[in-house]
Structures are given as C-alpha cells and as structure tokens.
Specification:
The complex is a heterodimer. By secondary structure, chain A is an all-alpha fold. Chain A contains 13 helices and no strands. Chain B has a two-stranded antiparallel sheet with strand order 1-2. Chain B is flat. Classes of the chains: A mainly alpha, B mainly alpha. Chains A and B meet through helix 4 and helix 12 of A and helix 3 of B.
C-alpha cells in the first residue's frame, strides 16, 4: 500500500515537473512540488503523531507539576514544552532527514524523478523544504500547546506566552540547520551513520564555546588553529538556545535574532550546496 | 470469518488477562523485594554541578527544574520519615547532606532561577550557615537586580545576630532598581533595633508576602503566629499584674479575668480561656501569674 502511495506521489510530482516551464520559476515549482510531496509523505508516515505525545506530556505536566515544583509550574511548563519541542524536532530532523534521499534511492523512485527534467539540486532542496515545512507545523502546534498550557496553569493570560515565541523561532532555525546537516550526511553515507554524525554535530554544536576556549588554552599553534577552525566551521547551535531565558520571561534582542537568522541562512545554503555537489556526483546505476 | 473473530477475541483476552497477571506479579515481587536501603536516598550525586551544566546542552533549564524538584522531594521525603514536629527553617535533625549539591546544581544549570536560592536562604542556615550565605551570594552575583535575594541574605545575617551585616545587605538591596521602600527602612531598623520582635515581624511579614513557595509561606506564617502569641502573652502578663495589684493575688482561673479579657477584646473559648493565634486555649498556671501555650493542642511553635 505504501509502495503504491509513493509511486503515486512520484507520479504526481513528475506531472508537476512536466508542467513546469524551464528557468528559475519552473525550478521553484518543481522544488515546491517535491516539498509538498515530502510533507505529505511525512504526514502519511505519522511523523506528526509525536504531537499527540507532546500534548499528553504537557497536559500531564500542567495538571501535576504544580504539586512537585514548589510554585514554579509556569517555568517548568516553558522549559519542558520548549525542550520537548527541540528534542522531538531534533529526532524528526535526524531520523526523517537522513532517510529523505536514502528512501527514494532504496525504493528506486528516484529513477522516476530523475527521468524527468528535475535537477539533483532541485530534488535535494525540495526534499529539504518539505521536511522544514513538516517541522514548521510541528513547532507551531507545539508552541500553541505550550501557550495553552500556560493559560491553564495561570488561569488566564500569562505574560510568558508572548516571550516564548522568539525562543520557538530560534528552535525552528536550529532544526532547519540540523535538517540540512542530516541531508548533507545522508547524501554520501548510510542512514545509521548519517544519524549518528548529525547527532554528534548537534552535541558539538552546543559545545562550540568550549571549542573556542580549548583553542585558546592549546599550547601548540597547530592545535590552536585546528580548534579555532572547528569553532568557525561547525554550526554554532548554542546561539539558538534561548529556552532558559524564555522561561524567565526574557526575549532575545531583535538584532541578535536577525543575526542568527542570517547565520542560519548562510550556513544552510553552504550545507545544501555541498550536499548537492556530493549528490550530483553519485552514480545510481 | 468466524475463525478470524475467534482469533481476535482470544488475542484480546490474552492482552487483558496478561495485563491483570502482570499487575498481580508486580504486587507479588514488591512483597518479596528486600526493603530499600534508606542510605540510598543520600547517595552522592554522580555529576558535579559544572559537569551537569556542560552535558545538559540546550536543556539546562529543564535539568535545573529537575534538580529543583528533586531537592523538594528530597527534603519532603526526609520530613515524611521524621517522627516529630519539624519546622522548615530548622531541619538540622534530618541529615540533609545532599541538599547543598542539589541546590548548587540547579542554580549552576540555571543561574537565573531565583527560587532555589531563596529556598537555600530559608532552609540552609540551620544546617550550614556558610553554605546558605555562599548560595545566596551566588544568586546575587548571577542576578544583581533581584532585590529579593538581598532580603534573603539580610535575613540569614539577621538570624545569625549579625545586625550590622544584615543592615548593609538590606542597604545594598535597597539601591537595586525596583526594590520596595521598606528595604531602605529595614536598613535603619536593623541597625537600631536588630534583635527586637518588631524587626522579626517585619522580616517574616515581608518573606510571607514575597514568597511563592507554600512551605516558606507556612514557615513564616508560624513565625508570625509565634510573634503574635508572644505579644498576647505580654498583654496577659499585664492583665495578671493589674489583677494582682487589685486583689493582692494571682488568678486561680480564667473566669476571674473574664471582664478584663473581654474589655481587652481578647478572643476566648466557652470556658473563658483566651485563645492563642492558632485557636487553642492558653493554659493558666494557677496562682503563679503565668500563662503558657497548650503544647497538646496549639499549632503555635513553642520556640
């Protein structure tokens, strides 16, 4: 049944491709068709079912956490909600992200797609945007869930509700970065290895400040250059961690959010370009 | 079709009956399991606060919440296991050796988390006053604009009888933007009248008003009840003195003082005995001009 659906997806997507006109606009339409199909596939694969678990978790927390937290239920709700948002999003970005290309190759649907006038870059970017759309729906619903939980525990309007949204935006940017990284790894390695490498990048990305400190403390110039290089090359994910301040009602400065958004945009462009470069050289014969 | 249905029903029954068996087996194994070593609760933390901070990645806020709730559970379990009356600001009998590392870790993970500092300021002075000062000072260093922490540090110094230091701390807190005017007033009050009952009342009233923690509120409420009771007992002593002046002897029963007590609007029970702030009747030491709390019924702390 799934196989049939995927074939239908591919057929639908290729119909879009056929209708597309050559040039920039056509390319956008082709990527948009792939993105929509990727989103539909994620929905069919029950990726969004994690929302049910999230809602259950928040509901339970809203009801019971008051007794356990010594009057700190609002802070705990925000910490728990946003941390779960990042954690679930990370799992989706990693485990769905690494399978985006692999599944298409494994099921051989990639042949049907590439037999049409679809570039490999368009295919990758389309897949990427599709998963980003899935993650966007995920974080938006979760953000609404956290807001509702706050409304419940405060028995009315809570000043933390507007302050969580900049943190949600930063989490989404981090997930977009992770998805791009997962896609890059999956363009040249197996899903298991890609998942591991992406997870390690997530971990190291949150240690980037330590990399800088390590570089400074290194005795040899070579090691100093190496760790300084790593600090600049690896994604600086700690910039996107604003969960804890958000739980205290603090919001990031607009300039900071814009800078991190620009950083994410540039980094994602670089990663997707590298992924396209590698993927273009892959031989599917 | 019938076979399929039979199969579904059988499998459904297996699930239901199996789960029932699992519940019974768990209850059985619970009975067989040796009791948990009570020392396990005091097992040292595996991770230092700094290590916890490092490995928590982006989840440091959630980890801090977890350590905070663990601190509360830790103290709560110890209180539950303790036989006898106990007050939050005097838990020295409970051997709370993990409380400092737990609160330290919670505040290292989330330095802006004010409640663990406040909890440390209330609970720790009776256990380890230096740690209480260190943790509260850590909170002030991380949150220099949190005037409530100056109030708590001042409370610790006041509790220790260091009125000069307490006054200086309140003075520093009074300069924090948004600090209430009474912080400035406390500065002078502590210097001139540090050990007085009115200073104590002021401190506990402010703590009661500011705290969001039910345990802290309960503790301060009891302190305020005790202060009220001390005031009441002073008043009763004056009544005794007046009675003795008039009659040349101390009263044998509360009934003898009925008109005076009613005139002074002191609440009384049906026997004419005045009631303490918790609603229990005071005990008159007949012929001795002395009044006491009834330790069997009162909820006012005896000391």
């Amino acid at each position: 049944m799934d196989e049939q659906l995927i074939t239908l997806d591919a057929a639908e997507a290729t119909t879009h491709y056929e209708k597309s006109k050559p040039g920039g606009y056509g390319s956008l339409r082709r990527m948009s068709a792939i993105a929509r199909n990727t989103f539909r596939e994620a929905v069919r694969d029950r990726v969004l079912y994690n929302l049910v678990l999230f809602v259950l978790l928040l509901t339970a927390a809203s009801i019971f956490i008051g007794e356990l937290s010594g009057g700190q239920e609002r802070k705990v709700i925000v910490d728990l909600g946003l941390s779960t948002m990042l954690l679930f999003g990370m799992f989706i970005a990693i485990f769905v992200g690494v399978g985006l290309v692999y599944k298409e190759i494994e099921r051989r649907t990639v042949y049907a797609v590439f037999s049409k006038p679809v570039g490999r870059g368009e295919f990758l970017v389309g897949k990427y945007l599709g998963l980003c759309l899935t993650l966007l729906v995920n974080v938006l619903v979760m953000g609404v869930g956290v807001s509702l939980a706050l409304l419940y525990v405060s028995r009315g309007w809570d000043p933390l509700i507007p302050t969580i949204w900049p943190a949600v935006l930063l989490i989404y940017m981090e997930l977009m970065l992770l998805t791009a990284i997962a896609l890059l790894f999956s363009s040249f390695s197996s899903p298991a290895l890609s998942a591991l490498l992406t997870f390690l990048t997530f971990v190291i990305g949150h240690f980037s400040a330590d990399l800088k400190t390590l570089a400074v403390s290194m005795g040899s110039t070579g090691a100093r250059w190496f760790f300084t290089g790593l600090y600049y090359v690896l994604p600086n994910l700690s910039n996107y961690s604003f969960i804890t301040p958000a739980a205290h009602g603090r919001t990031p400065a607009t300039g900071f959010v814009l800078a991190t958004a620009f950083y994410a945009l540039v980094y994602i462009t670089v990663i997707l370009a590298a992924a396209t470069l590698i993927f273009s050289r892959r031989n599917f014969k | 079709m019938n076979n399929e249905r039979l199969k579904s029903i059988t499998l459904g029954l297996v699930v239901v009956v199996g789960l029932g068996c699992v519940v019974l087996l768990v209850r059985w194994t619970d009975k067989l399991r040796p009791p948990v070593d009570t020392d396990v609760i005091d097992e040292s933390l595996y991770l230092s606060d700094k290590t916890s901070r490092r490995i928590s990645l982006a989840f440091n806020g959630l980890a801090a919440d977890w350590y905070w709730m663990r601190s509360l559970q830790y103290v709560g379990k110890k209180i539950d296991n303790y036989e006898g009356d106990i007050r939050l600001d005097d838990l020295s009998n409970l051997n709370l050796k993990l409380l400092v590392p737990l609160l330290d870790t919670a505040t290292t993970l989330d330095p802006e988390f004010i409640e663990p500092y406040e909890y440390a300021a209330v609970v720790l002075p009776a256990i380890d006053v230096q740690q209480a000062i260190r943790l509260t000072q850590k909170g002030i260093n991380a949150n220099p604009n949190a005037w409530r922490l100056y109030h708590h540090l001042g409370y610790i110094y006041w509790r220790e009888g260091q009125y000069q230091l307490a006054s200086e701390t309140y003075a520093r807190g009074a300069h924090v933007p948004g600090a209430p005017a009474w912080m400035e007033a406390m500065t002078a009050k502590l210097l001139s009248d540090g050990g007085s009952r009115s200073t104590a009342r002021e401190i506990y009233t402010r703590m009661y008003d500011q705290s969001t923690d039910d345990q802290v509120k309960e503790m301060t409420r009891k302190h305020l009840m005790r202060l009220d009771s001390l005031d009441q007992r002073d008043g009763l002593q004056k009544v005794f003195a007046g009675y003795k002046t008039r009659t040349g002897k101390c009263p044998e029963s509360w009934r003898e003082l009925g008109p005076v007590l009613r005139a002074a609007r002191i609440p009384m029970d049906q026997t004419g005995a005045p009631l303490d702030p918790s609603g229990a009747a005071y005990v008159l030491k007949a012929g001795a001009c002395e009044v006491e709390l009834d330790w069997r019924t009162t909820k006012v702390p005896l000391k």
